[in-house]
Amino acid sequence: MSTTRRTLIAGAVAAGASILIPEPAGASSVTYPKLVHHVFFWLKNPESKEDLARLLEGLKTLTRIESVRGAHFGVPASTEKRDVVDNSYSASEILFFDDVAGQKIYQDHPVHQKFVADCSHLWQKVVVYDALSV
To answer: Is the dihedral angle over the CA atoms 40, 46, 47, 53 positive or is it negative?
Structure first.
């Protein structure tokens, strides 16, 4: 086998391996804040589009808090029904913080306190998951 042919085959194998096991685009340069605060809300009136809109509007005010590094607000996705998927909630929020101290600033902040005062009458249940990256 010629050197050119071996080089071509080796290159094809390497290219195939990179196709089979790709590294996510920008994976080595992406960093996320250390603490994730994920909250699920169940509305008292889950059929009310107005109540959902008021809750989502209130949630979006939380991004004004200086320690919030990123946010995602959403509703259950129409993904595949599986035993491990719970889409019984009405809305969720994910907020990102640099650390526990930043999350504490958020909890005590007047904007958060106003959100709770203005919107807590809308929900019947709230579940919070806080996680630190490892």
So the answer is: negative
